[in-house]
Design goal:
Layout (H helix, E strand, L loop, with lengths): L8 E5 L3 H13 L3 E5 L2 H10 L3 E7 L7 H9 L6 E6 L4 H9 L4 E4 L4 H31 L7 H13 L16 H10 L18 H9 L5
Parallel strand pairs: 1-2, 1-3, 3-4, 4-5
Length: 221
């Protein structure tokens, strides 16, 4: 028996009934699950009650709250859906502000079907990639987790937690296979750089005369 394909859930928040009806026809024809709200209050209720909401199309001018304020609220949440802003009075400044606040895209009214579908597909693809990245990150954390209750391990964790928040250079000594990389990863995960990439370099594979420029860069001349 084949696995049933997940239908992405899209919420449209707009006080114009014509806009909601038009988007409902487009999205349901394309196979998406369509949800709608005409006010900020109604939108918040649907967002809180809906599991696995993938995308919100959010009008900037709503009767009870500015859409950009709702966008700010959503981006403070740990697992917020992608958001595309809609406006009938859009300016470049408004679009830039929305993007800075975390909006994936910005649609100007009147809406055009192909433009809407392209933006929606791109936003949903982005959502899938982010979800996949988070899943892989969780698996990596489990794979590289330091474990143990020995007093020496407790002391090691104390050193890691003391070092991680600083900008100090750390050299980790140890025989091959003793867990030097695990300690390096633990320091990275507890530092303010934890959201940046952890980069491994096999120094043994780099010629001695190139190692310095490879790690720290060099200036021509």
């Amino acid at each position: 028996m084949s696995k049933k394909k997940k239908r992405e859930k899209i919420l449209v928040v707009d006080d114009e009934e014509y806009i909601r009806k038009s988007l409902k026809m487009i999205f349901e024809y394309e196979g998406y699950t369509f949800l709608q709200a005409s006010t900020a209050e109604e939108a918040y209720r649907i967002i809180d009650e809906t599991v696995g909401l993938d995308l919100i199309l959010l009008d900037i001018k709503l009767p009870d709250k500015n859409g950009l304020e709702i966008l700010k609220d959503l981006k403070r949440r740990p697992y917020s859906p992608e958001v595309i802003m809609i406006s009938g009075h859009g300016t470049i400044q408004t679009a830039v502000e929305a993007t800075k606040l975390g909006a994936f895209d910005f649609f100007e009214k009147p809406l055009h079907r192909e433009r809407v579908l392209l933006g929606v597909r791109n936003a949903l693809s982005q959502k899938k990639l982010l979800r996949k990245y988070k899943d892989l990150s969780k698996k990596a954390e489990k794979q590289y987790k330091l474990v143990g209750q020995h007093p020496l391990m407790t002391k090691l964790w104390e050193e890691i937690l003391k070092t991680a928040p600083t900008n100090a250079t750390v050299i980790i000594y140890g025989e091959s296979g003793t867990g030097k990389e695990l300690i390096a990863r633990a320091i990275h995960e507890k530092s303010w750089r934890k959201d940046e990439e952890f980069i491994q370099v096999n120094c043994a594979a780099i010629p001695e005369e190139l190692i310095e420029s490879e790690l720290f860069g060099h200036l021509k001349g």
